[in-house]
């Protein structure tokens, strides 16, 4: 066998997005790009803020000293700038040495998991979930366990309590959520914090709460993403500039540790070591220097709000059942027939690409990413209506 059995199994488990990618290429070749309505990828299509170009130019024109190795945790001034912003968002005094610069949120999640997991430790994720969590957990010898959220994608605390045992090392939450767009309330976070405190005491070791927040600034209708740090001491925020500044290819993100976390220094040291030995070494130097001057900035959220409304209106007209997302740029409607994979095939016949809910651990739904051109949304309307009619047939 030319590749590891484990990776071979992972490849087939992760094939939904790949399948859609291949299907998109096939349909585009057959029908032309403008006749294919691809809602399968969360690749931001709104440009970075204007200020980004200026900061990039200024930073590039500066003294030619910024291309060498650096401390594995990142530039001190970048860590300070991020710490100041996170302190405001999290209503806690986060210092520069509680921040680690990473290669995107993905790099940050891997760094955290490498730092905290022993073989066989369990990481709990709430379904539907970002599909990579399972692979990231398994990268570091952990076992990924899922707990379903409620009908409105709120956290089911009773189910979570049932799922946790002595091997539970961490719980990952993601708000605003991919794929549902749900944003957890301050009260939900408080209840979650109380549950994790109780369980950590009962099991005699801390259960870390990891909040994956790359969509924090992409919220609608005045929604505010509440701070997590006041709700639970053993918590970490992992985030990036991939979505809020539309820079996913630049691989820049961070991890911030709650200042109240037990053994915070040891945890940061472990994550800094993980950043090094996972081969990231440090987050990209140029982007660290750029984002030092981009704190508090974000893409034009009005663009995504308009796309969300366009898509919601046409899906509602066609009879789809969904919860309007409070944040992020995804919609997770109910599949009009129980078999979401079969329904996604019906959509494909209309040249509409979506990802079945089963790929996120929640069958009976499908995901549409609305970070696409307005015309893609508008021109897909007849196809969505025909697919609904066929499913009801
Ligand atoms: N977490 C969630 C929920 C995501 O949707 C994504 C990317 O789509 C990531 C993490 C990874 O983001 P990054 O590009 O910053 O690594």
Automatic annotation (TrEMBL):
Alphabetically sorted, this entry's keywords are: Aminotransferase, Transferase
| CDD domains according to UniProt | AAT_like
Pfam families hit by this protein: Aminotran_1_2
Q: Name one GO molecular function term.
A: pyridoxal phosphate binding
EC identifiers of the protein = 2.6.1.-
Name of the protein in question: Aminotransferase
Give the record's family classification.
Belongs to the class-I pyridoxal-phosphate-dependent aminotransferase family.
Domain Aminotransferase class I/classII large as annotated: residue spans:
35-381
Taking the record's annotation, the residue ranges forming a coiled coil are none
Q: What class of enzyme is it?
A: transferase
